[in-house]
Amino acid sequence: MDCPTCGKSLNTEQGMRQHHTKVHGDPLPNRTCEECGDDFYDPKARRTYCEDCYTGAGEQNGNWKGAKEQTECEICVAEFEYYPSDKNGVYCPECVAEAEEFLGTPSYADKDIPRVDTECEHCSETFNVLKTRFEDTPCRFCSHECLCNWMSESMYEGDRPPNVYNGDWLSVRNEALDRDNHECQICGKTREEIGHEPDVHHIDPIRTFDDPQDAHTLDNVIALCRKCHRNVETGNMSCPDLTVESESRKG
């Protein structure tokens, strides 16, 4: 592929695009507007309309009033409306609300994929998970509810009030995110890669302090992504040494 600006030949289109962005400071178009037909650049390569044509109203908005479609519920056979921007309508809202279990079929249900049995560390019930998931992420709890209950019991003992995230917590949390560049200090994932701000983890747990507010200090918190945070909380991963991290930033 040849660069349209300087003519340099590169092996792939992606390489040519990266070259044009870095060397010439101008990303090449990667989308075509459905309204006017002009090519434009979208960082996430998802948009359908260019800046000049996009209004967010009418047919451009998948949730506009006239966009609803009608289908028949596969359980009660009643007709209901849904927006095409949602998943294809299969069950009506009433049947979903009344269902006692997940109304669907996991993508792996009909495949011969290895699974393993393990025991929940909170309720001691045996549960079954995909072997690949078990090897990739420690599965110590059978459900999110058991994980939350385990964390609550570990954090709150005696007569300690449950609302400990007040006082200086918000300002300390924001300072920690800025200090850690809004990225996980274990795996390095950025805020953009995570899709939201990283969690801010207490290195010495709140439960170890007589006054919970004493836990909210900059030298006792660190930014972690959700996965690394969970692994640290459950003892499957060690928390980085802030002193070492600080020295590495200075270097």
Topology:
Elements lengths: L12 H12 L6 E2 L6 E2 L28 E4 L6 E4 L10 H6 L16 E5 L6 E5 H6 L7 H12 L13 H11 L11 H4 L4 E4 L18 E4 L1 H8 L8 H9 L1
Antiparallel strand pairs: 1-2, 3-4, 5-6, 7-8
List the defining traits of the structure above:
251 residues, alpha+beta, 4 domains, two-stranded antiparallel sheet, two-stranded antiparallel ribbon
Structural write-up:
The structure is a single chain. This protein is of the alpha+beta class and 251 residues long. The protein has four domains: 13-54, no CATH class; 65-98, no CATH class; 115-155, no CATH class; 169-250, no CATH class. It has eight helices and eight strands. Strands 1-2 form a two-stranded antiparallel sheet. It has a two-stranded antiparallel sheet with strand order 3-4. A two-stranded antiparallel ribbon has the order 5-6. A hairpin with a 6-residue loop joins strand 1 and strand 2 (39-40). The protein starts with 12 loop residues before the first helix and ends with a helix. Mean pLDDT is 78; it is low at 156-161.
> Which H/E pattern describes the elements?
HEEEEHEEHHHHEEHH
As residue ranges, the low-confidence spans are 156-161
In angstroms, what is the radius of gyration? Answer: 25 Å
Physical arrangement of strands within the biggest beta sheet: 1-2
Query: How does the major sheet shape up?
Result: 2 strands, antiparallel
The helicity comes to: 25-40%
Structural class: alpha+beta
Helix run count: 8
Overall mean confidence score, pLDDT: 78
Integer count of domains = 4
Number of E strands: 8
Q: Percent of residues in beta strands?
A: 5-15%
N-to-C span: 40 Å
Shape verdict: extended
